[in-house]
Amino acid sequence: MDDGSTSYRADYAGGHPSPSGQAAPADAEAADGVKPPGSASDAPPATRGRLIIYTGSFSVLVGNVDDAARTFLTHVIGAGGHLQSQVDSTVTVRVPAAQFNAVVEKIATYGAIIHRNVAAEDVTRAVMELQLRLDNAERSRARLLELLERAQKMEEILQIENEDRRLTEEIELMRAQMRSFEDRVAFFTITVQFKSNAPEVFPAARRHRSPFEWINQVGAEHVVPY
Amino acid sequence: MLSRTDCLRLAVLACVALQGCKTLNLPVDGSFIITKETEDEVRAVSADEAHFTYRTFDEESGGDLKFWTAALTKNLVDGRGYVLVSATDVKTGGGMQGRELLFETTVRGRAMKYLVALFVEKKHVTTFPMRRKEVSEIHVLEYTAEKAVFDAHAAQVRASVQKL
After folding, report:
1. In this structure, which long-range contacts are made by residues A71-77, counting pairs with CB atoms below 8 Å and at least 24 apart in sequence?
2. Which fold, B4-163?
3. Does B109 lie at the interface with A, CB-CB under 8 angstroms?
């Protein structure tokens, strides 16, 4: 279903992170004249006329997974964010929109980023449409209440009350959607999977031999002759 | 005195042997010296102990680049504990498509980066007695060094792919 939002997405693997960590969203937004949050303007996107939701996911090789996850959380909390979930060494946090770049840049200081995905979703149109539908529904409900005051017949009253109940539920649902948009625009989501630095090559006894002999002959341990 | 049949057999074997000959040129220069060079293997090392090899393997079971890339990745990651850092398409100067894989691992206590580039060529060989067969010739370029050293030669090694 088209929710009126536009997504921008970029996958990265390896290499040095871009200064902002948001090369793709910045590029994607150039056409719209919208800048990513951060250095250019720390104002929340909502105040710049466009509503952009950024999400980032990263995998980082670190020396000590627990220390890195703890340090990351400390930094997120210091930036005004909070923990959303933590499953093993995968930490998902919400950070204020204006702090997104700073937190993303910090991730690169923990170790080698082996996977990076930053996506931007423009929800401006979706929010505008939702607001219009909400306004219409509230106006309709106000008219229904006026009609209810003037209604004489029981059948008419019941009909209006049923319609009012349906509209009220619809309005509550739309308000919840609006609150969700507001929350997602104000706080962006970052997921970081911390992985331990590559371990020692398995000892021969534990190593799985390939059925293809040439594969068993290649590898760093065979290239380094001592 | 050789019989006519023996002569024919020798001629076939010579053909087979000649077909198997390969000429490898060291695709790096300057900072590496060759420590071993045979018809299907070149090994080189730099002063700061970055290691480079270029080998070719004949694989009679066939298989294309995608297959061998997957098989090698699985063995290194699942079978030996390597961590895959990146995988990218590469191309030799001659236009041969390949795949470059970059891993991290630790060898005898030293944290290493390991780059391997694979290229797969189909070729026909003649086997005894006079049978034509398609095999895959797998070109494997490997470069490994401690993390602190790796980047110093990585660009040179990657550029050497152009000379393959």
Report:
1. A71/A110, A72/A106, A72/A107, A72/A110, A72/A192, A72/A194, A75/A103, A75/A106, A76/A103, A76/A190
2. Protein Transport Mog1p; Chain A (3.40.1000)
3. yes
